Amino acid sequence: MGNTASLPSDLSQVQPVKYQIAIDFGTSHSGFSMPLPELSDALTSGTSISDIGDVQRLNLTRCVKYKSSWPGSTASYPKTRTALLYHNSGRIIAWGNEACTRYLEMCSADQANHIFIDKFKLLLDTTNKIPNTGMERLKARFNKTPVDVISDYLREMAGTIREFIEEPNPNEKWNPNHTRWCLTVPAMWSDVAKLKMRDAMFKAGLIQTLNSDRLEFCSEPMAGLIHETITVDSMSTIHKDDPVLIVDLGGGTVDLTVMRMCDNGFQELVEGSGATCGSTLLDTAFIAMFKEAIGAGAYQRIISNKPQHESTIRSSWEFCKLAFTGTEPNFRTKIQVPAPLERARVREDLDPVPGTGGAYFDEGDFYITYETMELLYAPIVDNVHELVRRMIRECKEAGVDLRHIYCVGGFSQSRYLINMLRRRLMEQYAKKVIVSPNGSSAVVLGAIVFALRPNLLLHQIARVTYGTTVRTTYSESRFGPRAAVRARLENDEDGEWIRGVFSVIIRRRDKLVPGTVVATKVYWPSSSSQQKVVIDILVSTDCPKFADEGGCRQIGSIDVAVTPCQSSSKRDSVKVTVTMQPSGLLFSAINQRTQAYTQCHINLYE
Fold it and tell me: Based on the number of CB atoms within 10 Å of its own CB, is 476 exposed (0-12), middle (13-18) or buried (19 or more)?
């Protein structure tokens, strides 16, 4: 990462920070928040910063400004849809709730001239294999990447932020260059995904350089925990020094982190985890079941002609999700079937649809039973339980005595999911499960506290091993007999060397303290004519001896500028320093001969 423009050395003097803004960028919904003076005052004591453990419980909804009324929805909600609607020309027609509403209101001919896309946050997770038709069309037509789409969305949100700030204060002129940002990200995300989010913020014009210090990332579970520990709405008894397993149940992902609140911040205690198994997957499973119940061909034909019908079905389904608790064995609720779909179905009334847990049609409605809901929820319940069980095991092995299992996020409001989690866990852990009363807003409210106090993250645990490929002196005690590594060996006047060695920068499960240097490495050009040194960046879940072993994967490279010279003895040496920040790993480089900082740019690979 590196500067892409010439800026003043002391940006704070020329463009001082006037605004702190947190964005909760979610798979299905996103929102933003800003602090009122009462929040800043509460986090300080006189002229000093208060210990977080000493902060009095606050009514965060009165200390934080956030938008709860969004175009395209009549309900009060702290977020809008994470969705975009493009015209075939590439122009953005609508975003948020309105993108979905306008697309569904179009006839099929108009839809053919537009591209609707949602769930694009999942595309930053390289392990996610869920297809996204909108992304495929945008890539084919405009060569857009997921980062481009996210930057488009952030740019649209920035326009709403401007209106939110300026409309009540006509003399106020918001400038993103005077803003410090905090973005929430899944704890399961790699540093590569965070770097892509940073790139999206830069492309959206919200930060001036790729390595801007005016962008911080806060993990979604941590934002939820911050909210729980200082809000008056808390229903829990989380105390200082209590180890807490935070389970962030979101629209697209389930994120798990174990943290402990100390006097001056939060410590991550074991390696976090997560998976793509949020509430949107439940929605997808239901639509697939309903489509088969009607008849896939007929359903597709009718919905293609009149997409609004699927919106009606989804609205009924949302009610079903909220109504189902799992405590009523005779549970039964209905989905209103639009008339064209009702006429197209071939099954008789009251005839159970195979593979649906006993769901059936009756006089224009599709009735869902307890068994239907169990069937739809089963894969998600299995995944969430396994993730929690695995984290409990990790805590036991690390000697961490969990006091609470704190569930946050929009999907945490599913009483059935929480009830099933309690039922499956052993009694000693089931009674530790607590649920945020503000599941949908907890993260966006907690994130603005982190924006004001990014030093609240005291340390976190590395999830992978980072390294580079180097050539180093051969040693039999380190690399084994020559015969076993002969293909890697080479000799010159300086001695015997071995190529392709994995040189560790950060080890998996290392404790990383933000603001500290975690590694320094010195590199030389291989020839005197080189203008840059290219350093490969690799990750592995193990700590292999060689870069082509142990599941190593190259995720990018660092290009460091050097000055060509006349002889090899005068080659520049470059010292690369890796610093840990809440926003991820920051790389800087200095030419040790001239003491001049050199451009250090990260090229990320998919």
Answer: exposed
Cα 178 → chain centroid: 25
Phi, psi of 603, deg, nearest 5:
-100, 115
Give the pLDDT of residue 13: 62
CA 89 centroid distance within chain: 30
> Both 36 and 167 in a single domain?
yes
Residue 52: pLDDT above 90? Answer: no
Residue ranges of E strands in 230-345 = 243-249, 254-261, 266-275, 332-336
Look up the domain containing 561 and give its range: 462-604
Residue 84 pairs with which residues in a beta bridge?
Answer: 95, 117
Give me the phi and psi of 367, to 5 degrees please. -90, 130
How confident is the model at residue 11, as a pLDDT? 58
| Residue among 334, 328, 324 at smallest CA distance from 360 | 334
Give which of 558, 554, 560, 548 is closest to 499, Cα–Cα: 548
Comparing CA positions, the residue from 79, 451, 456 lying closest to residue 251 is: 79
Q: Are 43 and 49 in contact (CB under 8 A)?
A: yes
More confident residue, 529 or 183: 183
- CA distance linking residue 273 with residue 577, whole number of Å: 27
CA distance 335 to 321: 11
| Contact assessment for residue 195 and residue 35, using Cβ atoms and an 8 Å cutoff | no
In a domain, 412, yes or no: no
The size of the chain, in residues, is 606
Residue 246 lies inside a defined structural domain of this protein: no
The number of beta carbons lying within 10 Å of the beta carbon of residue 415 is 15
In this structure, are 206 and 283 located in the same domain? Answer: no
Q: DSSP per residue over 552-571, as a string?
A: -EEEEEEEEE----SSGGG-
* Residues 25, 155: Cα–Cα separation, whole Å: 13
Please check whether residue 111 lies inside any domain of the structure.
yes
Report whether 436 contacts 229 (CB < 8 A).
Answer: no
Mutual orientation of helices 146-166 and 191-203 as an angle, nearest 10°?
Answer: 60
CB within 8 Å of 189: residues ≥ 6 apart: 124, 125
Q: Are 202 and 167 in contact (CB under 8 A)?
A: no
Output the pTM of the full model.
0.86
In CATH, what number is assigned to the domain containing residue 540? Answer: 2.60.34.10
Give the mean model confidence (pLDDT) for residues 56-76. Answer: 88
Cα–Cα distance measured from residue 119 to residue 128, given in angstroms and rounded to the nearest whole number? 11
Mean pLDDT of the region 350-379: 93
Q: How far apart are CA 106 and CA 311, in angstroms?
A: 12
**Do 484 and 521 share a domain, yes or no?**
yes
Strand order in the sheet with 83-87: 92-95, 83-87, 114-118
**Helix H or strand E encompassing 429:** helix 427-430
In this structure, are strands 457-461 and 266-275 parallel, antiparallel, or unpaired? parallel
Q: Which residues pair with 249 in a beta bridge?
A: 254
pLDDT of residue 278: 82
